[in-house]
Amino acid sequence: MAHYKAADSKREQFRRYLEKSGVLDTLTKGEPGLGEGTSCPRRAPRFLKHHLGAATPENPEIELLRLELAEMKEKYEAIVEENKKLKAKLAQYEPPQEEKRAE
């Protein structure tokens, strides 16, 4: 029975810690967000960050990296397209594979 009291005591200490640190208030405020959906969120950590205000504020460096990534994606797509065109152009000047083997 002493074992149960020790576990309950630790739980009570942890509950008081959560109350003092404001975690319980924050969870209570975020709880209505759970009722908005028809089922449990698929990505619980993302849901909590979004609804509890724990999402980090946007860093200007992150925004710059996003813009750079978008630029690089555009360049990549242009290079892939150019590569396809060059391969098609090269294929016009190369003999078919069967002719190469016959020689």
TrEMBL record:
InterPro entries: AMY1 (IPR026060). GO terms for cellular component: mitochondrion; nucleoplasm; nucleus. CDD domains: ZIP_MycBP-like. Residues 62-89 form a coiled coil. Keywords: Coiled coil. It comes from the Eukaryota. GO terms for biological process: regulation of DNA-templated transcription; spermatogenesis. GO terms for molecular function: transcription coactivator activity. The keyword Protease does not apply. This is MYC binding protein.
